[in-house]
Amino acid sequence: MSAIRIIMLLLLLHGSTYAGWVITEESTDSFGNSLIQTTFIQNNLIRHETPTSVAIIDLNNKIITMIFPQHKLYWTGTTDELKVSSIEAYDLQMKKLLAGLPPYERNKLESIYLKIKQQMFDSSYSAICSKIEIKETDDKQEILGFNTIKYNVLVDSIVTESIWHTTDIQPYNDIDINSMITFMQQLNPAKEKSSVTQTDEYLHLLKSGILLKSIEFLPDSNKQEISVKNIREINIVPDFFLPPKNYRKAALSDILNYMPDNADIELNR
């Protein structure tokens, strides 16, 4: 399950006025690498934490805030501003990269980069549409004390992902689906048109329960597994969804300069 789909799933959580949710997940790959990520949700506010960064999404105001604790920096803005700022930052990086390439490789890389920019900004651009199906299986498991049913996601009749869903707990009862769909399409218009997250079947699963486990089968025969390790209802103070007061607001290009070797602001996964 890609990062952008994890965020979409979490956007569907709309907590009550007095309580929110905390979800802890572990992502592992075929090589034994693992990543713990924790997400806090309350009143259409989402805080998604990894060991190196924090993303806060205000679904009510359509604002994204990206926090980099190791540098005490943050960036905040709308989805359109994020795309514009990302392109400006990548343009600077691309100029440096292209300067050292021979003409053939430079032209090839420029062509790929222009295609990415078109996908981000041109709402008329359409990715190749695939036939997507979600099929229930007879496989039933107990995860975290909840009864789950396994579903297979098929793209053009090929199983690309298996997901385990439960209706024992329903944290998505209060859903603003229209806002969620609009938000995700603004992030990546072309990709979301052909995404499993846009199917009626997938949205029905999220409305009726929660996905506690997923295994994505990658083209290189590897796989990625994401499992919910803990989910509970808690009270969250509003300031938790704001950047720390002693952090400095910065442009994305400045943030990339602080992280020249591993800067990777992902919009297209």
Can you tell me the CATH superfamily? Lipoprotein localisation LolA/LolB/LppX
- Report the uncertain regions: 13-18, 260-269
Span between termini: 10 Å
Largest sheet: 12 strands, mixed
Q: What kind of oligomer do you see?
A: single chain
Give the CATH class.
Answer: Mainly Beta
Helix content: 25-40%
For the CA atoms, what is the radius of gyration? 19 Å
- From the spread of the alpha carbons, the general shape counts as globular
How many helices does DSSP assign?
A: 7
Which structural class do the helices and strands define? alpha+beta
Beta-strand level of the residues, as a percent range?
Answer: 25-35%
Spatial ordering of strands, largest sheet: 7-8-9-10-11-1-2-3-4-5-6-12
Q: How confident overall, as mean pLDDT?
A: 80
The figure for the number of domains is 1
> How many strand elements?
12
**Helix/strand order:** HEEEEEEHHEEEHHHEEEH
> Remind me, CATH topology?
outer membrane lipoprotein receptor (LolB), chain A
By CATH, the architecture is named: Clam
How would you portray this structure in words?
The chain is of the alpha+beta class. It has a single domain, classed as Lipoprotein localisation LolA/LolB/LppX (outer membrane lipoprotein receptor (LolB), chain A, Clam), CATH 2.50.20.10. The protein has a twelve-stranded mixed sheet. A hairpin with a 4-residue loop joins strand 1 and strand 2. Helix 2 runs antiparallel to helix 3. The longest helix has 21 residues. The chain is globular, with a radius of gyration of 19 Å. It starts with a helix and ends in an 11-residue tail after the last helix.
